[in-house]
Amino acid sequence: MKTTRPEIPASGGRSDAPTKKAAGEIPISSMGFKPFAVIAGLVVVLDQTTKLLVLAKMPLYHSITVIQGFFNLTHIRNPGGAFGFMAAGSQGARNLLFVGVSVIAMGLIVYFYRSTPKTYPYLASALAMIFGGAVGNLIDRLRFGEVVDFLDVYVGAYHWPAFNVADSGITVGITIFIAHLVLGKMPN
């Protein structure tokens, strides 16, 4: 019976590839927890700070023109999901659904982040932005039963649904994630 020894990479045994863990154990991202916490925390802090300013300084439905014909700050409340999804539904069922979906999504994001090797910093950052945005909107949902929105982009009479910093973090993160998928740049 012939036995072979495993080959040692030219790097002296070090590899940038994620290491194999015991069955059921999730490999920790080579980037570690700190970058995730910093990026997600920055999104949450910016989101909650801007919302506090809007709540303190702008009456509900008040609008301030920033760029005429294109951008306003407009204080609104969104009881629904993205683009007002389920806004007219039962508040209890709606909140239960959105809180539950948020918690599940945040768990999946942490799982994917921990599985992302350090050679994918943009993907890891995107996951942290999505997580931070989810936390920012979840805080609103738990505090108010709805989300504070205030960024109003429009052209003439055509308005994009109002959004906030958390939504922006989610959108940028998802855009980077989709770019990785489309360009075939996802880790194995």
Main attributes?
single chain, alpha+beta, 4-stranded antiparallel beta sheet, 13% strand
Structure description:
The chain is of the alpha+beta class. The protein has one domain. The chain is built from 4 helices and 4 strands, in the order αββααββα. The protein has a 4-stranded antiparallel β-sheet. Strand 1 (63-67) and strand 2 (71-78) form a beta hairpin. The chain starts with 32 loop residues before the first helix and ends in a 6-residue tail after the last helix. Mean pLDDT is 85; it is low at 5-19.
Task: Give the gist of this structure.
With about 190 residues, this protein is of the alpha+beta class.
| Radius of gyration (Å) | 21 Å
- What sequence of helices (H) and strands (E) makes up the elements? HEEHHEEH
Order the strands across the largest sheet as they lie in space: 1-2-3-4
How would the global form be characterised? globular
Provide a count of the helices: 4
As a percent range, the share of helical residues equals 40-55%
Supply the number of structural domains: 1
**E-strand count:** 4
Strand content: 5-15%
- Provide the structure class: alpha+beta
Give the overall pLDDT as a whole number.
Answer: 85
List the helices and strands and how they pair.
Layout: H1 33-57, E1 63-67, E2 71-78, H2 91-114, H3 121-144, E3 147-155, E4 158-159, H4 165-182
Antiparallel strand pairs: 1-2, 2-3, 3-4
